[in-house]
Design goal:
mainly alpha, globular, 361 residues
Amino acid sequence: RPCNAMGHFDGATVAWWSPETFPVALVVALLSTACWGSWSNTAKAAGDRVNFAHYYTDFCLGTVLTSVLFWLTLGARVAGREDVDGSRALFALAAGGVFGIANVLLTTGIALAGLSIAFPLCIGTGLVLGTVLTYLVDRRGHPELIFPGVFLALLGVLANARAYAKMQENKAKSGAMENDSSEESGAVDSSTRSPTSFRKNIVMCIFGGLLMGCWAPLSTKSMAGDEGLSPYVSFICFVCSSMLVGVAILSAQQWGCNVIPRVGAVTSVKEYINLSPMLHGWGLLGGFIWAVGTLSNLVSGGPLGFALSYALGQTAPVVAVVWGLAWYREFDGAPRSAVLYLVAMFGMFFGAIALLCLGGR
């Protein structure tokens, strides 16, 4: 039986798997944090060997296959409770479409504006707006603890961005970073950008953040109440819609319709088909990891409250930084200012997680 936001059983029964206690639901929510902070490693592993459009197509395909796999196993092959309203799928489809656009805007913003600019604008805006809107749909938890936790997480995002900015500045001053490596890391020299293109990139990042903050409340609405979909079916609708929107945008870019600027060279379906299984595998693996994280977030939202689970998931940047420190050695030789920002970031994120956990009790 699922439990309510206070950790007590509410007496309702569901056919699909759901965490039965608050601690288990909390662990599942933190799994989403780990997965959301780790899937991008597959994009780094693929590197320049895979065109961005090819990687993103495999990523989307991986999310769809994973969603079906979990519905066939943990999802009990049902759409919801006995009184499920099939029209709720429209909210899940809308959530997926919104996310599909937002994710393309985020990845494009990182490539064109740089990580230190795109990340706080897009992820920071999405974190705050998404939590607020989701809480309006699902008012469980203690807002006096949840929203201060969200504020600390926002400060952590900003500190993370400043740490990367200081690191890039240090590399530029020492002359250790070449032009091609700066492009690979998502950093863009401000001297090479025109004011007009820079403003367009900023607007794109902000718009992406606004959209990123809108998918969670729509997804929550699809699952709310006895007539809502199960999280497993809601997720299938979500990823199918996201894939259709994402692939449509990428396809339009290949034909010269660059409403959203294209990342990477023009490519073709033939080149995609001719990729080796290993190179296809990186995108599929990335989609699997992201899908496990997102589904964990949705499943834990039932017992915890969807605003709380979403906010916990959005602390994922701290996991990405741990990968950068321990595996990629991104901050070897970093200046003292970058290290201080990293220390502040960890403190803020851990404080945010603590407040969010207490806010669900």
